[in-house]
Sequence to fold (397 residues):
Amino acid sequence: MRLMFYPEANVKLRGWGDKKIMTISSKTKQHGARTWAMRSACFAAMGALVSPIAASAQDNPQGALSFGLSHSSFYGTRGSVDLTIEDLWLDGLSLSARLQSGELGQGGSLAVEYDWDIEQPVFGFDTQAFVAFEASGQDWDPLYSLAEYELVLGLRSTVAPNLVAGVELVWNETNLSDFDGSVSPVFLNDQGSSTSAGFRFGLEYDNRESDRLIAPGTTGIFEIYAPVLGDDDRNFVRIDGRLGYTVPVYNSVTLKVAAAAGVVVADDTDMVNLLDRTFTAQGFPRGFDYGGAGPRDTSTNTVLGGTQYVAGSVELLVPINDRDWTIGSFYDIGGVWDVPGVSGANILEDRYDRSSYGLSLNVPTGIGDLRISYAQPDNALATDELNELSFSLNGQF
Fold:
């Protein structure tokens, strides 16, 4: 359902690409007035309700049931099951549900979207209007629990070949609760409920002929989110961008280059809510755990997240058989820094770019893509949390 610039963090674009429901915001948040036991029961009930639909959707070209499996040293092993059904009951009505479970807890989300074509396009061509609502919750971060409710009204349109633009009016409510006793005092400023409403604008470019890892072409995403109403600590402008370029260089050897950057623009004296901060530079560099290479409160060893990031990656991929198996050699660099409104001898927030090098193995299977990478950090700080070996498996029925 989500197109993430970086895992479990802030950026998501709604309604672009192959899936109809995608969005830009922070990690899922939790309502302080509700216990996780109640939410668990809700997610269990949701699973019972969507299971029979999923079974029928497998034979329906407008439905898809997919799964994912990943592992990191911080979050452990986690699995997810996603159900997406389009044109449910009437044309343009879509339903998406996700259930997740891992060693540290569980979570889930439910989203509904209705879209319709505009006969006289506002801009470009193939213009669609849509309204969507999503509710989600999770309780597997060891430091806190989160819930989020989001309502979006927007337009998306193909404005040029391979270029899609979107503009959205967004209302978002988040709730942060159940803090661990060892959490940094910086986090305590953000507990409870917070609300923001504003505008989001994005562009996505993709001229690849397929989603294959070695498919040549250029991809790019640019987005601006500007709340105009809401709590003081959510008064900011967020800008994110990413470029990717894939090109054959010699026989079957392929070069992949990626670059990303982002910033949350706020007054230097204003706090930026932890739900709007960045905890990883869009997944780079590999070899570091989620949030493990950025601002930190050393007095409690708590990862704080930052408001600026930059990242880059270069990878050579070589097919090793005729079934699109590839082995890669990569070099990554990236950094996250700056926590406005926070200072002290125990706060590490200055820019320090980390880098890593390693090998990757990518195996398309009959049920999805298996990706394994081993990265060796070469300039980690003593406080960084490492995750040299990682894997993910994503499949669809």
Notes: Residues 62 and 86 are 5 Å apart (CA to CA). Residues 1-61 have pLDDT under 50 and may be disordered. The chain has one domain: 36-396. The chain is about 5% helix and 50% strand.
